[in-house]
Amino acid sequence: MGVVRMYACGCGYSKEICVGSGMGAFNINLVKRLFPQEAAMIDVSRGPGEFELANAVGECLSCKKLYATAMLTYKGGVATKPCPDCGKPLMISDINNVNCPVCSELMNWQEVGLWD
Ligand SMILES: [Zn+2]
Ligand SMILES: [Zn+2]
After folding, report:
1. Distance from the CA of 53 to the center of ligand 2, in angstroms?
2. Closest-lying ligand to the alpha carbon of 85?
3. ∠ at Cα 13 (3, 106), nearest 5°?
4. What is residue 27's three-state secondary structure?
5. In angstroms, what is the span from residue 6 Cα to ligand 1's centroid?
6. Ligand 1 centre distance from Cα of residue 71 (Å)
7. Distances from the Cα of 100 to the Cαs of 3, 18, 31, 41, in angstroms?
8. Which residues contact 87 (CB under 8 A, 6 or more apart)?
9. Which of 58, 72, 91, 105 has minimal CB crowding within 10 Å?
10. pTM value?
């Protein structure tokens, strides 16, 4: 189960983001849809533990915004999705230490809910 976090900065920027893993964490069909290239390298016959899909906090340096982004961890490494607005790679933040995309200050966060 993942949690919904509200990230807020003193400058006024705030964003609600679902982080962690939901029901889709070990769903290979979801991986195939989100990361087709990487999915082809995953051998599902080897059982669970070959991959994990989770939501991460991504920062786009161009758009100066935070995004909830899918992140796939597998044997070949870690794959993430690009910025949904401009297509540039997102910088993945440590979910406990997210810097504001507008003013670069460390943001406060609180859990506001759960998702699955
Ligand atoms: Zn962008
Ligand atoms: Zn800020």
Report:
1. 29
2. 1
3. 70
4. coil
5. 20
6. 17
7. 20, 17, 29, 35
8. none
9. 105
10. 0.88
Give distance in angstroms: CA of 19 to centre of ligand 1: 19
For the chain, domain boundaries: 19-95
HSE on the CB side for 83, CA within 13 Å? 15
Do 57 and 17 form a contact (C-beta atoms < 8 A)?
yes
Residue 15 token pair: 């964003």
pLDDT per residue, tens digit, the chain (116 aa), is 799 999 999 999 999 999 998 888 999 999 999 999 999 999 988 877 899 999 999 999 999 999 999 999 999 999 999 999 999 999 999 999 999 999 999 999 999 999 88
